[in-house]
Amino acid sequence: MTSVAHQNVYLGPSALGRLRDDESVAIAVGRDGVELERAGETLVEKRVRLPVRWVKGFSDVQVYQPGLRLFCECSGAEARRFLRSVPRNPAAGAYLARSGNTLRLSQLAVGGGMRVGGLHRLRVLDPLLGRIAGLRIWGYADAGVSAWDLNFGDARLFLLLSPEVQRGFSGEGQALQILAGGGWEGALARVRAELRWQAELDPARLAGNTGLGEPQVAAVLTALGARGLAGFDVTTQRYFHRELPFDLERIESFRR
């Protein structure tokens, strides 16, 4: 089984924008930072302390992802047409609808449509549009949260958009509701003891190993995600073990 690790890094557009497909690049990830080396040039990004609002945002993302539901799948050509039509300027929330093989935006609620917010943020994908082989779009009930799963054939990019541009996920409070709800605390230690950097966590197997019911395991996995101790892969609909690099006591302080 392949282990999964995640690192959140910002190298800036100047570092990555100049890379070519045929260029040799070396990336070194260490405890103190990340180094990118190309053509004799080395760029170093040092480790920094995460602001509390970032920590809250990471936690809320993990709570939202298990609730995402597939809205539609598009071909590469359809995805390019739609993404190139997205307005560049910030606009009020809208509804995403599909007619035949055409995606469109509407300012009014439409049957079978999905509420979305701040889609101008998708324009950061412009340099990648020529490589898109397919697109899957996910939504979260009527919350305005949307996820964009871009398929490039040999790679994928998953982008999750918050409903409000100005506050991001740190202002949504989903993790706080989960942590404050309780009901998972007594079982958390038993489930956490089973975490060994698995690429996929099987709730049925965890239930069998811990003697808990699957609903209890599901609640614990949600809480672990909110605490940064588990991630969720929307494409496989499975949790995986990982540990985000922040102090768990800061997460627990959100519900006090």
Fill in the CATH topology of the largest domain: DNA Polymerase III, Chain A, domain 2
Please give the CATH class of the largest domain: Alpha Beta
Number of domains: 3
Residue share in helices?
25-40%
The first-to-last residue Cα distance is 38 Å
Helical stretch tally: 8
User: What gyration radius follows from the Cα positions, in whole Å?
Assistant: 20 Å
Shape: globular
Q: List the uncertain runs.
A: 1-7
CATH 2nd-level architecture of the largest domain: Roll
Helix-strand category: alpha+beta
- Helix/strand order, N-terminal first: HEEEHEHEEEEEEHHHHEEH
Largest sheet strand order: 4-8-9-10
Proportion of strand residues: 25-35%
What kind of sheet is the major sheet? 4 strands, antiparallel
The averaged pLDDT comes out at 81
Total E-strand runs:
12
Protein name: Zinc finger SWIM domain protein
Organism: Methylocaldum marinum
Brief summary of the model shown:
Helix content is 27%, strand content 25%. The chain is of the alpha+beta class and 256 residues long.
What does this structure look like?
It comes from Methylocaldum marinum. This is Zinc finger SWIM domain protein. This protein is an alpha+beta fold and 256 residues long. It folds into 3 domains: 13-46, no CATH class; 68-166, DNA Polymerase III, Chain A, domain 2; 173-255, Arc Repressor Mutant, subunit A (Orthogonal Bundle), CATH 1.10.10. It has helices at residues 13-16, 52-64, 76-85, 174-181, 185-192, 203-210, 214-226, 248-252; strands at residues 25-29, 33-38, 41-46, 69-75, 94-99, 102-106, 114-116, 134-139, 146-151, 156-161, 230-233, 238-241. Strands 4-8-9-10 form a 4-stranded antiparallel β-sheet. A 3-stranded antiparallel β-sheet has the order 1-2-3, with no helix packed on it. Strand 2 and strand 3 (41-46) form a beta hairpin. The two termini are 38 Å apart.
